[in-house]
Design brief:
three-stranded antiparallel β-sheet, elongated, single chain, 7 helices, mainly alpha
Length: 166
Amino acid sequence: MRWVMRSKSSFVVMALALWWVLVNLPWLAVGEEEFTGGQLIPVLNLLPAIVLTAVFISFYGKLRRTLLVLAAVATTLGVYLSFSQDLVASAVVIAELERLSGVLNPESHEAGVSISNLWGQFAAIGAGIASALAIAISLFGTSSKSLASAKSDETEDNRSLWDEQN
């Protein structure tokens, strides 16, 4: 197996790593307690790791397009979950509200507990969109030229090695 570095691959990996970091920053503040995106939507802890693994495997050239399509779909799913989920209704927020108010009913948390959205959610959504776009650009980019040039470089290197041995 041979690993071929593509020109856009470093941007894809950096965007995915940024998305993974931003998923683990605070997204919601309930009173004094801050909750990360991974705590509020637990599947977001796994999606960046799955996508990064698929992208790294695609670097080896086996099933490249299939893996990149799956990575783009998983990234789009993560962005959709970040948009669509009601963070205030998540289990950890309800448990915190019940702890702070002392009432086992999430609707009666009017005991002066403030809930505020933080910048982490919007930054993670932006990084997820950037990651999906980077994967799509990498998917539809011209990789046949880079593979052809890599093969021609190998041929030239092998010829010179053959000539040196004779």
